[in-house]
Specification:
The protein has 337 residues and is α/β, with parallel strands linked by helices. It is built from 13 helices and 7 strands.
Length: 337
């Protein structure tokens, strides 16, 4: 996405609100920093409230922020920092580059904060000045625009933030954070460091090899097995349910009570219940519900539903993301399931 070279002037855009919140786009495959960063300037929010929504008093607003919960399929709030009323409200998003599923979570997270707190300004890395989306927003057919933008998101050339702004130009302003000279300088430092990558990797691999050998001499057979299973899970060689089942078997063997670990127990209960699910029948019922939704949703919402269904089948969306979206549409259409 090309950004214009205009200087950044936030004077008219900034509406002071309060608090600072860090949100992390949830991704089962991992995280990396992207999208929104704040300059060292207390007058610059990442996503600023327009002041036109909610009408909350400062005290209620702080309480509302502190108790905010994102749907788990979208992300989770890692930290909340409450400051005085003179500080801006900042949402700092972390996500994975070029990951379609994660970018769709970004779209939903921005939609959430825009609706709930009237936040309408995004400051993004990798660009400078005002972002010009006219090549997309000039497409009058909303469904065609959505399809075109979706293609570029899948190609990794448009981010979730940009996608939201393109589809909702009246709800979000996007500005680039960078100064071209500093950005280029830092990029060159990174490129220069790659010269040493091969030597550094060799040293790291040598150290890892020695540690691996030490484990064999220092660990008992059971600890060594546990360490190997953990490495397999962290390396995506075994699924979460297998790893959790293994932990449960070790706990039973060692008479370790897992009741105090509520989330782990919930997972074990789900795995136990999964054995009784008729998946063929569940799939038929899901298809029936989707048919009902197709009859009740608008043409644009139907196109989104079709895109989400394809993304789910292609493993571009996690099951939790797809089914949370599906149940949200079921509720909005008042379909009794």
């Amino acid at each position: 996405m090309k950004a214009s070279g205009k200087s950044i002037n936030f004077g008219s855009a900034v509406r002071k609100v309060i608090a600072c919140m860090i949100a992390v786009a949830f991704l089962f495959s991992g995280f990396s920093n992207e999208l929104v960063r704040a300059q060292n300037n207390k007058d610059v929010p990442l996503l600023s409230g327009s002041g036109e929504g909610g009408g909350l008093s400062p005290d209620h607003f702080i309480s509302d922020i502190a108790n905010t919960q994102l749907p788990l399929s979208l992300g989770y709030i890692r930290e909340v920092h409450l400051s005085d009323q003179q500080k801006p409200f900042i949402v700092y998003l972390q996500d994975a580059h070029c990951n379609y599923s994660c970018q769709q979570s970004i779209v939903s997270i921005i939609d959430y904060f825009n609706e709930k707190f009237s936040m309408d300004l995004a400051i993004v890395e990798g660009g400078q000045g005002d972002y010009d989306f006219s090549m997309f927003t000039s497409i009058p057919d909303i469904e065609k625009r959505a399809q075109i933008v979706d293609y570029f998101v899948r190609e990794g050339r448009v981010t979730g933030t940009e996608q939201f702004a393109i589809m909702n130009p009246d709800r979000l302003i996007v500005k680039g954070l960078e100064r071209q000279d500093l950005y280029s300088k830092n990029l060159n430092v990174y490129r220069d460091s790659l010269t040493y990558k091969e030597d550094v990797d060799k040293h790291i691999n040598t150290v890892a090899h020695y540690f691996s050998n030490l484990k064999r001499h220092m660990f008992s057979k059971e600890v060594d097995e546990f360490d190997k299973r953990t490495d397999e899970y962290n390396g995506d060689k075994i699924p979460l349910k297998d790893y959790v089942s293994y932990i449960d078997s070790v706990a039973v063997k060692r008479n370790i009570d897992l009741k105090e670990f509520a989330n782990l127990n919930h997972m074990l209960m789900l795995l136990s219940g999964e054995k009784n699910i008729d998946f063929d029948n569940a799939q038929k019922q899901r298809d029936e519900v989707i048919d009902l939704l197709m009859k009740n949703l608008s043409r644009f919402e139907v196109s989104v539903l079709v895109q989400r269904s394809i993304s789910y089948k292609n493993d571009d969306m996690t099951p939790s993301q797809f089914y949370e979206y599906l149940f949200d549409k079921i509720d909005s259409c008042h379909i009794d399931v």
